[in-house]
Amino acid sequence: MGRKWNNIKEKKASKDGNTSRIYAKFGVEIYVAAKKGEPDPESNRALKVVLERAKTYNVPKAIIDRALDKAKGSAEENYDELRYEGFGPNGSMVIVDTLTNNVNRTASAVRSAFNKSGGNMGVNGSVSYMFDETAVIGLEGKSVDDVIELLLEADVDVRDVIEEDDSVLVYADPDQFHAVQEAFKQAGITEFTVAEVTMLAQNYISIPVESQGQFEKMIDALEDLEDVQQVYHNVEFED
């Protein structure tokens, strides 16, 4: 599963270059999650997932509090959660998750980002069947054996536990996200290198060196869009 985590790291690293844009997107995502239920992560699991992921991106508390206060207020902003699927260079597969208050604007912008980089949008389901929704939680300072023992003692089922670089990574079903985190927190572990529910490709493809720039241009164009929250793909680059 190391390839999958590399994919996440590459995506996260690309986002870290523009923190103000990332913080703004988290503000919208936190607001939408809070409006789905109570603006309290202890009673709103969707909100708790977003806040845990925001923590790994070092989103300032002021931005989180502002989004939560906005959700508690009387103002009402309506956002649609939409997923777009498509194909990039060399048959690569891409999933784009958005939150938008203008569906026509977002659809047009996503389609343009695909088309300008040699890709094309597909129909719903054309790509997502090749991805699995997966909870990924990473931590440092523990061995794989330590983590497995801890999870067994907590009676938490996971898909896999691996070591990659300096982190131990736990892959689990999405509905086990909170159970895994709670097991760690009960053991005094509260800091995570990654904590999110993501879409991981079942199989990854390599893109030739000559096509890498075109693919990266497409991913950057998609991630730069205001309404795009997450971009997932099935590419790993050749050395």
Automatic annotation (TrEMBL):
Entry keywords, A to Z: Cytoplasm, DNA-binding, Transcription, Transcription regulation
Domain TACO1/YebC-like N-terminal residues, every copy: 3-73
Gene Ontology MF terms in the entry: DNA binding
A single GO cellular-component term on record: cytosol
All copies of domain TACO1/YebC-like second and third, residue ranges: 79-235
GO BP annotation list: regulation of DNA-templated transcription
Cell compartments where the protein resides: Cytoplasm
Alphabetized PANTHER family for the sequence: TRANSLATIONAL ACTIVATOR OF CYTOCHROME C OXIDASE 1
Similarity annotation: Belongs to the TACO1 family. YeeN subfamily.
Protein name as it appears in the record: Probable transcriptional regulatory protein BVG16_21790
